[in-house]
Amino acid sequence: MNLPKCCKCNHEFSWGSVFRISLKFSQEIKCPKCGTKLYLTMKSRQKMSLTTSMPLVISLVLQAFGLPFKFTMLIFLLFLVLAMIVVPFVYSFVDKEEPLW
Length: 101
Ligand SMILES: [Zn+2]
Fold this sequence. Notes:
By secondary structure, the chain is mainly alpha-helical. The chain has helices spanning 15-24, 42-64, 69-90; strands at residues 28-30, 37-40, 93-94. It has one domain. Helices cover 54% and strands 9% of the residues. Helix 1 crosses helix 3 (69-90) and helix 2 runs antiparallel to helix 3 (69-90). The longest helix is centred in the middle third of the chain and has 23 residues, at 42-64. The radius of gyration is 16 Å and the shape is elongated. The two termini are 25 Å apart. Bound molecules: zinc ion. Zinc ion (ZN) binds next to loops.
């Protein structure tokens, strides 16, 4: 797993800055080094939605197995934190906007 890089100048984004981008859900990102407008790739957007839906899927499966709600909640929160940590690593940037689908 690697943190995303600027496709123009190869500037590597820090985990924190990518995390902030993911919180804002902004489509447009600017490279702090060369100022190139960057966009999330379609693939990374798909990976992101997959990663963030994982906690919900896992806790629903556990709930289906009859585990106590408190326990499922705990697992859900644990995986949610894990997903948030992982999300910046699934990002990759391009300098052209891609169609959503
Ligand atoms: Zn750059």
